[in-house]
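Trying the structure run again after the queue cleared.
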Amino acid sequence: HCLVQGPAQGPVILFSNSLSTTLQSWDSFVQRFSSQPGFSQYRIVRYDHRGHGESPAESDEPCTFELLAEDVALMLEYLQIPRLYAFVGVSMGAATAVYFAAQYPERVERIVVADVLTHGPSDPATDPFAQRITLAKTDGGRPLMEESLRRWFPYPNFLESCPDVRERIKQQILSTSIRGFSNAVRALQKFDLRPLLPKLNGRQTLIVVGELDGPLPTTMKQISDAVPGSQYVLIKRAGHLSFIDGENQFLRAVSRFL
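Done. Tokens:
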């Protein structure tokens, strides 16, 4: 399932979101991005990952980021889009962007990589994703929803001051099917960006991370250091979904980059 906005012949920017969210997570950002002077020229594409939003989880087949990148390639073929001006990804969407750029280098000009780990858990005994699958299967997924909101938006009182954001993201998390969530988690448990980063050399790359996103500021700086010529931007007072709780800064960084 995808949503396409903007002039048919405009340069195409693809936005890809995180685990447990849908294309609607970008609503506010895309509206503000496109309303800036000179930015209405872009054709904006958003989509739901398989098993998220209105995209079905086709089966229980093992999900990988190679497969998620192929999903994007097939969607773009259907939309008759031969090349992206930019691929903007956050979290799971950021990993998808890196895999897509590595697998289809001729099909994307520049990428924005935001708030993502470099690889899956090294030790199964401390794998946080296994616990999250259990939470997703408990009480209609509400424990997972509460845990995710706390982890994604750690700045004090942000969610209390933005109840519309809380409600919107809450509903997206609860609407994600168990199958879709579990399959995507399997991809996150096994992915590894490290061998792919050298393939981004020479491609315009923006690395963005929320200041409060756990260990990721350090991790994302390492990603930036591994991609010569990339830009690194730290979003102050923002968490894992830095395009939401750090929207103004994220908008400024991405707009300048593009």
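The chain is about 45% helix and 15% strand. Worth checking whether this holds up in the mutant runs.
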